[in-house]
Amino acid sequence: MKSPSTPDLVSRFSALVEPGHALVEAADKARYLVEWRDLFQGETPLVLRPANTGEVAAILRLAHETGTAIVPQGGNTGLVGGQIPVPGQQEIVVSLERLDKVRSIDPLGNSMVVEAGMPLAAVHAAAEAAGRIFPLTLASLGSCQIGGNIATNAGGTAVLAYGNARNLVLGLEVVLADGRVWDGLRRLDKDNAGYDLKQLFIGSEGTLGIITAAALRLRHRPRGLAAAFVSVASPKAALDLFVRAQAAAGFGLTGFELMSGLAMEFALRHLAGARLPTSPAPWYVLIEVSSSLSNSEADAIVLDVLAGATAAGEAVEAAVAQSLSQVADFWRLRHGMSEVQKYEGGSIKHDVSVPIGDLPAFLDEAMTAVVEAFPGCRPVPFGHMGDGNIHFNVSQPEGSDRRAFLARWNEMNAVVHRVVRGYAGSVAAEHGVGRLKVDLLADVKPPLDLELMGRLKDALDPLGILNPGRVIRRP
User: Fold this and answer.
1) Would the pLDDT of 271 be above 90?
2) What is the mean pLDDT of residues 319-340?
3) What are residue 203's phi and psi, to 5 degrees?
4) Backbone φ and ψ of 348, nearest 5°
5) CB atoms within 10 A of CB 83
6) Strands of the sheet with 111-115, listed across from one edge
7) How far is CA 457 from each of CA 117, 460, 475, rounded to the nearest angstrom?
8) In angstroms, what CA-CA distances link 279 with 232, 355, 415?
9) Per-residue pLDDT tens for 1-14?
10) pTM over cut 0.70
């Protein structure tokens, strides 16, 4: 690829956006170059902030002409480094943050069309103003952007009831690597006229095209909501409780989160105003039930589940939310678990999934394996038990050196991922592959999978200018 660092090429790219939105000064570029965990720090000669799809298309036409590498970036909340430009590679960052408008809302058709740079919280607010909800929910909803959510097929806490991002997308507008714009903004529930092309771009992490707008699927807001915070003795007890709750609530079970006792200790220690709703326990579960009828129906389901779970020995103690404010307090404990680990020193992350029925055995085996391999380390698992996705994070031993611990990141990954593979699980459950996990794919994907992925990359981005070195490496 050609280097865009020459003054002439930087000037040509800069002229494609409005004055003040081509950033070349180090201070202006700084916030686009650091991942929030400080695991990846990047370099770029230029950050471009286009205002519309036309400007994105012009940037990619020039990039295709000159062989310039482009790194699309949303809210910079990604956890695998895909959005951070590689030092020394002269990759240009294209931030979508100015594409932040609602193009249309159709409450009757339960859909809305929004631009890729809208923060997820703003998408929520726009849907609510129209009397609907957009159910994708993440801890980073105030800063992540919908285009990035779709490009990474974000999951979050509502997958159990509503599915991943790809289940909530009706159509897309995408700028291709050569600058052509694919208009796939259809708002149809049923369309079998050929290949479902939008699915190529959902979860592709900006390697096949840049998403500039999306048609989203909306839902009616439930009329009733109930939540309970439950102490349990073990993941097996939590699994039994999940089976019971799902049988009682069906599609109304909109949340079922598992948290280890140590993860909760970290939250109580470092999350301002945090309070444990029950007595201390080895494990905790957060249950949320929604009802299309009323709060009383949701409450009745939760109380019936808890009564049965207590009688069967699945639940040690439970607190039922008495208000929406208390529901929010319960969720704040869960959503704060990623952030609070920073205060305990280095943390090595694993975003994994296994079949739901194997979760208790996986957790037991993985926790034993890391403690044996890294004496004194502190496993801090938590996550979406209802869909089999656990954030199996491991904090450094107390009093140890942070840098020395993080230097063993790959060793720790190897231990955990070996256990994951034993259960036919995934090592990239919802955060994606990015740069962090690109070299793992050869170990976990069959050769034919990699061949087909490579063919798609070559077909849609033959010059390899879109997020090169992410998801899949090409020669």
Assistant:
1) yes
2) 95
3) 85, 5
4) -100, 125
5) 30
6) 102-106, 111-115, 210-217, 169-175, 181-184
7) 24, 5, 12
8) 10, 30, 33
9) 445 557 899 999 99
10) yes
